[in-house]
Structure formats: structure tokens, C-alpha cells
Write a structure and sequence with these properties.
By secondary structure, the protein is of the alpha/beta class. Helix content is 37%, strand content 18%. The chain has 9 helices and 9 strands. Strands 1, 2, 3, 4, 5, 6, 7, 8 and 9 form a 9-stranded mixed beta sheet that branches. Helix 1 links the parallel strand 1 and strand 2. The chain is globular. The termini are far apart.
Length: 303
């Protein structure tokens, strides 16, 4: 009989939501089945009193904020090199990545993850549904596909939500970690494209729910600059050369059609320029058959 998959969770925090973080940890501890071990990464903050080895909670304190992908990579490395129980190799077959102000609504989410990854050995990533805790509604931008009108419909997709997902650790072993230099925005799609190019599948599951307050991503001061810069980096890193200008051009047009404010547009064009003039990291263009695969899944890599 095959042993059940081992689950771990990575949570990054700036230390400014201690009550929400505690509630999230409690919701992870309440999961059915085998315990989910947790690594909490403090981004330039102390996490005094948070570690609880008996409950499977470890902490890693960073001297500075490395950004979202950088912080999550530290959590991945904590499992890879030490394990949440002090082992020398991966102590988890699947890692959950959860925003520190989120909350697992159901107690069977971990078991649903185990079941999904066990039943489909080609499944590499699962994107959870994010729902507002007050209304239960899911915003269109939280459904990782173009046809987002029905968030209750699960489907195969081409990307995933960074703060509410589960990734098979073999994906990281095969295609590498998140692009730390992105700092914020589009790091999920970068990993998703690399995973799809390597043959992995990605699912959106409406029954795996993370409750999370409905907030606008533009609340972050760096939002417009990094969204633009990282879109260019994403294309330069991953797309076949003929598609790079098409992808970037489509997003330039969409941005202009959305009529952002003057300051937002100025920040966006600053990031756009930065994306072309700075290093994007290693370039590994996806295969043309992956382009066709993405197209068949409903999202060709030009939008």
C-alpha cells in the first residue's frame, strides 16, 4: 500500500498581521489526515514565540524583505535542506503556499490535495479558489483562466494563484524555484510555463478554498512598475523569440485601453523600460508544442 503524500506549507509574513497569521496556522493545524508541517518565513521581522516544533511549525527570520518569490524560495529551501522535522532532504511531497492573511475554510483541503496529486501523477500544481470571507465571492482576477465568469467550475489551467496553491516538490526539483528577482508579480506564471514545458499539468480547484479579504493589488506602491517590468521579463525568459514582441505588445495595448491614471501610467512605462534594459535571468524559451498546448487549454501565450 502506497504511503499517503506528505504535505508541508510555506507562509511568508512581514509581521504586520499577527492575528491573521495565527488564525491561518490554526486552520492548517485543523486539517484532516496527517499533520501539515509549516515553515513561516519572516521578511525582515522577528518571529519570536511563533516556532512550535511539537506542532510542526518552524520559523526562518530574514534580515530583509526578499519579496514574495524570494521569501517563498527560502521556505522551499528550508524543506529541501533541513526538512521541517530536521531531515536532510525534502520532508514533503507537496508544498502549500498560503498568504499570511488567508484562512483555510474547510478541514479537508489537505486531504483533497493528497487525493488530487495521488490520483494524477502528472499533476504538478493546484490553484485554490480564493473567496472573500464576508461575501463568499471570488473575484474574476482570482480565477486563473480567460473564461472566469464561473469561479465554481474547476478546470485545467495554464497558471495559478501565488498565495493559494499547492506544488509537487518534484516540479521544483525539475524546473527550479520561483524567479526571486521578480520580487512581486508574475512569478507564478513564470513557474507555471516552465512546469508546463516540462510536461506537468496545472488544475484550478473550486473546492479547495482559501478565504482572503477582497483587496486591490494596486494597493502596493510598486504594483504598476513591477507588473510592467515582470511582464517583459516573463516574455524574454520563456517565449520563443517571435512571440516576445507579440506578448508584450498585447499587454501594452490592454494597459492603455484600461486608461490608468497619469502616475500609474508613468510607473508602468518606467517598469516597461526597465524590463527591456535590465537582466531577466536565464532565457529558456518554451517548446513550440508547449505554445500549442497552452493554446489548446484556452490561453495562448500572447495574452
Amino acid at each position: 500500500m502506497t504511503a499517503p503524500l506528505r504535505l508541508g506549507a510555506v507562509i511568508i509574513t512581514m509581521g504586520n498581521r499577527p492575528d491573521e497569521l495565527k488564525a491561518l496556522l490554526d486552520s492548517v493545524a485543523r486539517q484532516d489526515g496527517a499533520p501539515v508541517e509549516v515553515v513561516v518565513v519572516g521578511q525582515g521581522v522577528r518571529l519570536t514565540g511563533l516556532a512550535d516544533p511539537a506542532a510542526g511549525v518552524r520559523t526562518v527570520e530574514l534580515p530583509e524583505n526578499l519579496g514574495i518569490p524570494g521569501g517563498r524560495n527560502v521556505g522551499i529551501e528550508a524543506f529541501r535542506t533541513a526538512g521541517a522535522r530536521g531531515l536532510d532532504s525534502f520532508d514533503a511531497d507537496v508544498l502549500l503556499f498560503l498568504d499570511d492573511d488567508g484562512l483555510l475554510e474547510r478541514t479537508d483541503t489537505a486531504e483533497l490535495c493528497r487525493q488530487a496529486f495521488t490520483e494524477d501523477p502528472e499533476l504538478g500544481i493546484v490553484s485554490f479558489r480564493i473567496a472573500d470571507p464576508q461575501t463568499g465571492e471570488t473575484q474574476r482576477r482570482h480565477v486563473p483562466r480567460l473564461r472566469a465568469s464561473d469561479p465554481m467550475r474547476s478546470s485545467r489551467v495554464t497558471t495559478f494563484l501565488g498565495g493559494a496553491n499547492a506544488v509537487r516538490t518534484k516540479v521544483f526539483e525539475q524546473v527550479g524555484d520561483l524567479p526571486g528577482q521578480f520580487f512581486y508579480a508574475h512569478e507564478e506564471t513564470d513557474l507555471a510555463w516552465r512546469a508546463l514545458d516540462a510536461g506537468w499539468l496545472i488544475d484550478y480547484r473550486a473546492d479547495m478554498v482559501l478565504l482572503h479579504p477582497a483587496t486591490a493589488p494596486s494597493r502596493h506602491a510598486v504594483y504598476h512598475r513591477m507588473v510592467a517590468r515582470n511582464r517583459v521579463w516573463l516574455a524574454r525568459r520563456n517565449l520563443p523569440a517571435p512571440l516576445v514582441p507579440v506578448y508584450v505588445g498585447v499587454w501594452l495595448l490592454l494597459t492603455l485601453l484600461r486608461k490608468p491614471s497619469g502616475p500609474a501610467l508613468k510607473a508602468w512605462f518606467g517598469g516597461f523600460k526597465e524590463g527591456w534594459t535590465t537582466s531577466c535571468g536565464p532565457r529558456r524559451p518554451m517548446k513550440w508544442r508547449t505554445v500549442w498546448r497552452l493554446t489548446r487549454l484556452g490561453r495562448p501565450p500572447v495574452i
